[in-house]
Amino acid sequence: MEDNYILNEKRRILVEGIKAKGIKNSTVLDAIANVPRDMLLDKNLKKYAYQDRALPIAAGQTISQPYTVAFQSQLLEVKKGDKVLEVGTGSGYQAAVLCEMGLNVYTIERQKELYLCSGVFLRNATIAFIENLGMDMKGFQNMHIMMGLSLQQELLLSQKHF
What we know:
The protein has helices at 4-20, 26-34, 66-75, 93-100, 112-124, 153-158; strands at residues 55-56, 62-63, 83-87, 104-108, 128-130, 142-145.
């Protein structure tokens, strides 16, 4: 296991690279710096955790590239305390970054393997991790969709207030 100094330096370098690519929101950059991405990866991949690239996780999926997570987080234009629904938890990285930004994050994952893998980390990070919320999205200021929309797309998009 690497010591905190080395991990902190890797995170700092990652954030500087993301900043150089155009991410300006300091809340987003701070969140990327503070979320332990290495904790979401298999032990054989931890050494790559703070490289700006997607990496394999369970169920044939990938943990998103940190720049992608930062870019999507910046696009949301949210403020601390907003309630955000994430559809497609995956590794939990995006949800953890949003939570670190001070948002109230609710996340849904349909694949049981991913749900089980990310669930322990997210519960420890005090993120509301919901297995099945149904399709009622009312009451959310923002919705962040990390999956294809073919499943009940019309129902999801017809709701006027998330």
